[in-house]
Every structure is written in structure tokens, then in C-alpha cells.
Write a structure and sequence with these properties.
The protein has helices at 3-28, 46-74, 83-136, 164-238. It is mainly alpha-helical. The protein folds into 2 domains: 3-131; 169-239. Residues 172-238 form the Sec20 C-terminal domain.
């Protein structure tokens, strides 16, 4: 392979390194808005897609640099101190610098994955907090729509016509609605359970009071029997 071809390959791989840096920076600084992703989602999201793309590029770059090193070794050197020898040495140094830069990208990629995960978790915590706040606010079932608006929700586009972002937003809305329905059901069941608990407590108290009353009556009857026995014995002794 000629010096020109090797130089062009090196330039292309150096440009790919710059693209990798851009993607890694994007991964590390990606900003998730609350509700943009399903809660507790660990995959099938923008992080996994972007990380997969970066990982694939890193692997390809590593393989291409290995081949390029072999191409540089196979180049003609010419006589010691000749122009060919200097060009070959220059290309070899350029490959070494580019490979070192690639290793730096690999380290930055691992750090970016950790940071992106933290950003996602922070957005999920914020989403949960918003849900809790929405649950704590009373909602009126008889509230009327604002002037100029319709009481019916806008009709959704068919899924085939939605963009990826729209599908993600709709999925998040569905999850939020499902969580709210679950919360309402749990609140209703909790209310019923509380009513049953209060009823049982009142019944227990009533039974305890009734038992005490019966105990008092039993003592009274016992005393009456004793008194009656005493009177009968007294009458017999008088006769």
C-alpha cells in the first residue's frame, strides 16, 4: 500500500476519533426531562442506543488501527535517513498518537455511561416526586374545561405515523395514567379497609361493654340467690 493511502486511512480514523468524542460528550451531558422515559427503565431508551453506537465505533476503530499499524510496518523504508524512512516514521508516530487518543475515548466512554445513568435516575426521581405531588393535590371530578377548550382529549395519531419522540412521550403518559389509576384504586381500598377497621374496633368495644354488663348481672343474680337462700333458712328457723 502506498504512503498516500496509509495517510488517508490515518486521517479518516483521526476524524472518527473526533466523532467518538462528540458522541461521548453527548452521552455524558444528555438531559432527561421528567416523564420523557418510563419509570425504572433500564434499557430500550436513548442511553442504550447511544451507548451501543459508541461501543460499536470503538470496536471498529480498534480493529482498523490494528490493520493500519500492519500497513505502516509493510511500507518501504528506503535507505537510512531517506525521505521514505522519515515519512514512514512520521506515519508510525501519527498512528501511535491516534491509538492513544482512542484509549482515552474508551475511558471517557465508561465515565459517560455512569454519568448518563445518574442523569436518568435523577429524572426518574423527579418524575416520581411530581407524581406524588399530583396525588396530594385534590382533583375535582366536576370541573369544567377552560373556555375555548374541548372536554374530550385530542385524538392520538396512529402509532405508525408517530415519531420516536412522540412514541416515548405517549408511553410515558400511559405509564403516568396507569399509576394514577392504581393510586386511586389503592386509596379506595385503603378507605374501605379503614372503615372495616373502625367498625371492628367499635364492635369489639361494644362486646367488651356488653360482657362487663353481663358480668355485673351475673354477680347481681348470685347475690340475689344468696339472699334468697338466707331468707328461706331464716323462715325455716322461725317455724
Amino acid at each position: 500500500m502506498s504512503f498516500q493511502s496509509v495517510s488517508e486511512q490515518l486521517a479518516a480514523l483521526q476524524e472518527a476519533n473526533q466523532q467518538l468524542k462528540t458522541l461521548i460528550d453527548r452521552l455524558a451531558t444528555i438531559n432527561f426531562q421528567p416523564g420523557s422515559l418510563p419509570l425504572d427503565s433500564d434499557d430500550d431508551n436513548v442511553i442504550a442506543e447511544l451507548a451501543g453506537e459508541i461501543a460499536g465505533m470503538l470496536k471498529e476503530q480498534d480493529e482498523d488501527f490494528e490493520l493500519l499499524r500492519e500497513e505502516v510496518i509493510d511500507l518501504e523504508e528506503g535507505r537510512p535517513g531517506s525521505e521514505l524512512g522519515q515519512r514512514k516514521e512520521s506515519l508510525g508516530l501519527g498512528v501511535q498518537r491516534a491509538v492513544k487518543e482512542l484509549k482515552t475515548c474508551e475511558i471517557a466512554f465508561r465515565k459517560a455511561q455512569i454519568q448518563a445513568k445518574r442523569n436518568l435516575q435523577a429524572a426518574q426521581r423527579a418524575e416520581k416526586q411530581l407524581l406524588l405531588e399530583s396525588y396530594s393535590q385534590p382533583r375535582s371530578s366536576t370541573s369544567s374545561p377552560a373556555p375555548g377548550t374541548t372536554a374530550f382529549p385530542p385524538r392520538r395519531k396512529p402509532r405508525s405515523e408517530m415519531t420516536k419522540e412522540e412514541r416515548e412521550v405517549n408511553a410515558s403518559s400511559d405509564v403516568t395514567a396507569a399509576l394514577r389509576r392504581t393510586h386511586d384504586m389503592m386509596a379506595s381500598e385503603l378507605s374501605r379497609s379503614q372503615f372495616a377497621h373502625d367498625t371492628l374496633k367499635e364492635s369489639t368495644a361494644a362486646l367488651a361493654e356488653l360482657s362487663e354488663t353481663y358480668s355485673t348481672l351475673d354477680n347481681l343474680l348470685s347475690s340475689s340467690r344468696n339472699l334468697l337462700g338466707t331468707l328461706l333458712r331464716s323462715q325455716k328457723s322461725d317455724t
